[in-house]
């Protein structure tokens, strides 16, 4: 019944907001983000890089809600985009085009033309074909495109294989040998100014060593280019800084240590350093609120069936990612162990297996931790489940920054065949 589970739990505050009241008002599942936690991350990174000529371009893919992007814009953070959709969002949020870098292996003619028309700062180019297309489109538009060559430094980021990008077998970037040829021929391009380097070796990186290896290779190549008469105005060191999903297990690199490495490696570089953090700025600032639908006893285990599912948070299903799950209940519950699962009809719709936590009952509210990055942005409507609401919390107040999708919105655009066309 509706009253089950409402009772003796104490207040659970996140950025000063009572999560029980919040869940009652916006209902579950719901993504909640702390504005103060995001501001702290921005400020922390900015102060670590203070004194260095740098620009932070937030990787929009991590959390692309326009309210989050507006928060970035307010703090002078630019954007790293990979599609026209992300470009639109960034501009809508007030991020100036000249603070936007465009990455990705599959930029189309249309995307390049649109990005040139609004005047994005630079293109991180990932193939010779793309470089030639950029020249062609820029010439047609009578403009000069600024470009950086994305280097694949062939280093192992020692993270999950699905989010490793800096090995030569990965689709990203080009070898230093290929990039060397690009620069040698750059003079023949009338409408592309190739004066930057870019490298991004992967995501959720928890060790400094892979960064050191990759950045050292990039910097050595930069010096070689400068000596060969190719000035380099910017070096984009990508994103990838890991965060804490599991207390006591994940030990993220402190921003100051990362910045310290960058200062040493690029001590002789006089241009602008670009950073593309995504996860680092938003992951730990987000939680996913979900309610227990029922506890289902199995043969040898108990299933906690919750109202969030893999369509709301894909990371556990896709990467076997570990997210903290905290029942927001009083301290008087006995310990228990559950497989925490969603209602979607796949075995992979599992948030945790055999997880120790307080005993739960139907109606209990749970908080799934560190979901601010690659949570809502990877959501789908699989099993025809509407997209969850998103709320921004700020010092005891909250604003709905995405209302729960309605059934009508979910099927908008679909229609029964009315006209049969011939091709
Ligand atoms: N720059 C480029 C070119 C990227 O491809 C990415 C992420 C970033 C920056 C930002 O990386 P971050 O700072 O967030 O690590 N869905 C996966 C993560 C995919 C990352 C894709 N590229 C996950 O949930 O773990």
TrEMBL record:
Its EC number is 4.1.1.20. Substrate binds at residues 279, 315, 319, 346, 374. Its cofactor is pyridoxal 5'-phosphate. Keywords: Amino-acid biosynthesis, Decarboxylase, Lyase, Lysine biosynthesis, Pyridoxal phosphate. The keyword Amino-acid biosynthesis applies. Residues 37-283 form the Orn/DAP/Arg decarboxylase 2 N-terminal domain. Pathway: Amino-acid biosynthesis; L-lysine biosynthesis via DAP pathway; L-lysine from DL-2,6-diaminopimelate: step 1/1. Pyridoxal 5'-phosphate binds at residues 240, 276-279, 374. It catalyses: meso-2,6-diaminopimelate + H(+) = L-lysine + CO2. InterPro entries: Ala_racemase/Decarboxylase_C, DAP_deCOOHase_LysA, De-COase2_CS, De-COase2_N, De-COase2_pyr-phos_BS, Orn/DAP/Arg_de-COase, PLP-binding_barrel. The modification N6-(pyridoxal phosphate)lysine is found at residue 61. GO terms for molecular function: diaminopimelate decarboxylase activity. Transmembrane segments: none annotated. It is an enzyme of class 4 (lyase). Specifically catalyzes the decarboxylation of meso-diaminopimelate (meso-DAP) to L-lysine. Homodimer. Belongs to the Orn/Lys/Arg decarboxylase class-II family. LysA subfamily. This is Diaminopimelate decarboxylase. It comes from Lysobacter arenosi.
